[in-house]
Amino acid sequence: MDAYLSDVLSGKRMLLFDGAMGTMVQRLGLARVNEQPDLLCLSDPDAVTGIHAAYVEAGSQVITTNTFSTNRFALPEGLSVAEVMHAGVECARASGARYVAADVSVLGELLDPYGDLEEDDAIEAFEEIARAINDEPVDIVLIETMTDLREAQLAIRAAKSICDKPVFASMSFGNGGATFMGVTPEQAVTGLREVGADVVGMNCSLGPIDMIALVERMAKLADCPILAQPNAGLPSVKDGKTTYDVTVEQYIEAFEKILDAGATVVGGCCGTDPSFISALSKLVESRS
Question: What b-and-e string marks burial along 260-286, b requiring 16 or more CB atoms within 10 Å of the CB?
Answer without folding.
Answer: ebbbbbbbbbbbbbbebbbbbbebbee
